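so i finally got all the pieces together for this one. its two components total, 501 residues if u count the protein bits. some of the lines might not be protein, just check the labels. i wanna see the whole assembly predicted at once instead of chain by chain like last time, that was a mess tbh
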Amino acid sequence: MTYLEHVGKYFMMLRLVFKRPQKFHIFYTALMKEIEDLGLKSIGIIMFISFFIGGVIALQTALNLDSPFIPDSLIGFAAKRSIILEFAPTFCCIILAGKVGSYITSSIGAMRVTEQIDALEVMGINALNFLVLPKILAALFFYPFLIILAMVLGIFGGWLAGVASGLFSGVDYIIGIQTEFNSFLIVYAMIKTLVFSFIIATVPAYHGYYVKGGSIAVGRASTQAVVWTTILIVISNYILTQLLLT
Amino acid sequence: MIEVHNLYKGFNGVEVLKGISTTFLPGKTNLIIGQSGSGKTVFLKSLIGLHIPEQGTVSFDGRINTEFSQKQKMQWRQEIGMVFQGSALFDSQTVEENVMFPLKMFTDKSQAEMLDRVNTVLTRVNLDNSNKKLPAELSGGMQKRVAIARAIVMNPKYLFCDEPNSGLDPQTAIVIDNLIQEITDEYKITTVINTHDMNSVIEIGEKIVFLNKGIKAWEGTSEDIFSTDSEAVVSFVYSSNLLKKVRQVYLNKTL
């Protein structure tokens, strides 16, 4: 199968996903379950990584800007920009692509190879709409909150790392993060998050839904899904940065 | 009645079904038999619309399934119950939730009414007191019974079973066979079973279609299968010494 055929099949899949749910109360229950599985269960890992990476960013910045001509507040400013522009939306979404992407592919793929998807179709249920739409909406709804949490914790981690190491003062860091605050950068980060969330929910779903074979094929599809999700996040990150910031 | 006319289906240039035509008797237990790779599962999945045939038609009481509008297709789907080879129960749902699922999706019954219906069908398949168990906590035979309960919960007109005995011990296989036949008679369902199991052929087959290399090689009743002189059927059905002896006894009796 050529790449172009995969692209076509992916968009054909989306056409079937975006249909009106057959029963709203069942859809609502599925949506809440996906918010828990894809969102709430990812809070721990995102908090942990954001906090420590924020600290590392601040320490690295402090060590590389060690000059009497550069004010210490610049450390907070640089750390804030790095975290808001790239670390929180892009790095965290790549982590989510690994964690959530493999979960989506393996759960849908296992349903495919055990004929559960066939069972849904025989009953007259649009399996793509039933399985994938709640995942897309859960990711689009929840990941912006998760990324804002990552921003806050990353910046806090930077402050704590500086204070604990003595490389810069907490006051300078806070002055730095207040300097030249541009709200559009948050909008930019949220636009990126929404695009990445859509990729995280749909690309692994595609790999899981069309898997053929047994458990080995599901494992292989999970790996491919994570690789392709990451590649698409990186490419769309470049395109969005070009479009929104230049 | 289910009528199949000149059905062709292939994958990646390989023809699996090569012009099959047959009819399945209404309110009876119809069996599709044949060796592994003879196209039984593809045939069954083509009947229920999981595979779209390249040529030919399948009609359900005169209605051709490939000509349905989207709305008609949805209605037709609800007339069908299917028991998959591996049961295909939803892992994350309990027995009760699995059986209730079609009712939740397609009816406006209250929770109490749905629960009542679920308990009725679970009792019918002899599965009381398992409502809150997950599929993983059940034996293979119990999973098959849950799958049958889920398939009949909407009172289907047609029941399809893909190798319902696979992976079961002979005793449990007979229990499942008898259960399917009782349900067929009780609810007047047109049942189509895909099987390898020769016990099923002799015990419950009212109409038998034998597939060989993608073509219909023979069809008849379970009575006919004892007396047939079709070499392909005889070598497939009477492959074991026990069945050869059973056939001999039958033929001696009728002579």
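The interface with chain B takes residues 22-23, 26, 110, 114-116, 118-119, 121-125 of chain A (CB under 8 Å).
Residues 24-245 of chain A form one domain.
anyway lmk what u think
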